Amino acid sequence: MGKKRITSVGENQKKEKKPEEKKSVKEVTEKEQGKKGKIRRRKAAKGKVRGKKYQKTVTQLEKGKKYPLKEAVALLKKTSISRFEGKAEAHLVVKKVGLTAKVNFPYSTGKQKRIAIADDPEVVEKIKKGQIDFDVLLANPKTMPALLPYAKTLGPLGLMPNPKNGTLVENPQKAAEEMGKGAAIVRTEKKAPLIHLVFGQVSQAEKELQGNLQAVISGVGKENIKKIVICATMGPGINVAV
Predict the structure, then answer these.
(1) Which end of the chain offers a freer environment for a tag, N or C, measured as fewer CB atoms within 10 Å?
(2) Number of C-alpha atoms within 13 angstroms, CB side, residue 189?
(3) Between residues 128 and 91, which one has the greater pLDDT?
(4) Per-residue pLDDT for 8 more than 70?
(5) Which of 147, 200, 141, 205 is nearest to 171 (CA)?
């Protein structure tokens, strides 16, 4: 006779696997990521924290106040906290999307644009070879057919001549001269009534920045501006009374 297998009470119970308890997403995250997961959540809750230098600078501004143009420009220079050559920026909220305006800056904005005219066969030949050494391309409507084969090259770079931005004109030579003197075409974002532009360098004289900012207001038109805020590249926004 073979030996009988004696099964102790509770043996079957030990073999049975207990169903695993479902852990919450929070518990799994903390277990897998440890302290890092907790730190990330704490930082997200707090949001963006400005540096002490910036926070100290902001105290020089009165919340909600709209400053006269001259005072606003003086504050822009005073509140710039960058160690590098900062730019003087203007951000406008206008009444409608698609607004385009011509601004004639009386003083330098700090960047000289390289202008090319498509009427010149040499310019077209350079474009054909992929040699894009200009920031603005001007053209006469009659020369546009010669540029159409290169639309895929010029279009993504924002260089395709267009009547809306003043680069497709009857007299490209005259337009180039005006741009060389400080004329610029500004326009809103595609889907929002916002205009962003640089009107100078922080290191420029206050008189020059005042003149350039006034040119922006005149070019866009007071009647079209709902709000205008200026700031240095690294500095708080300053509301300007229009």
Answers:
(1) N
(2) 9
(3) 91
(4) no
(5) 141
CA distances 117 to 54, 103, 181, Å, are 44, 21, 16
Cβ atoms of residues 185 and 99 within 8 Å: no
- pTM of the model as a whole: 0.64
For 113-181, CATH gives: 3.40.50.790
Q: Give, in order, the Cα–Cα distances in Å from 98 to each of 69, 163, 164, 166, 204.
A: 26, 13, 9, 14, 31
Per-residue pLDDT tens over the stretch 183-214: 888 999 989 999 999 999 999 999 999 999 99
Q: Where are the alpha helices (DSSP H) in the chain?
A: 11-15, 25-33, 35-46, 52-58, 69-78, 121-128, 144-147, 151-154, 172-181, 206-220
pLDDT digits (tens, 9 = 90+) for 136-146: 899 999 988 88
For 65-109+182-242, CATH number? 3.30.190.20
Instruction: Scan for tokens 């004109």, then name that residue.
Output: 169
Main-chain phi, psi angles of 12, to 5 degrees: -65, -30
Q: Please give the Cα distance from 235 to 82 (Å, whole number).
A: 8
- Who contacts 206 (Cβ-Cβ below 8 Å, separation ≥6)? 70, 73, 74, 77
Residue 23: predicted pLDDT: 54
- For residue 124, give the 3-state DSSP assignment: helix
Question: Could you state, in order of their start, the residue ranges of all structural domains in the chain?
Answer: 65-109+182-242, 113-181
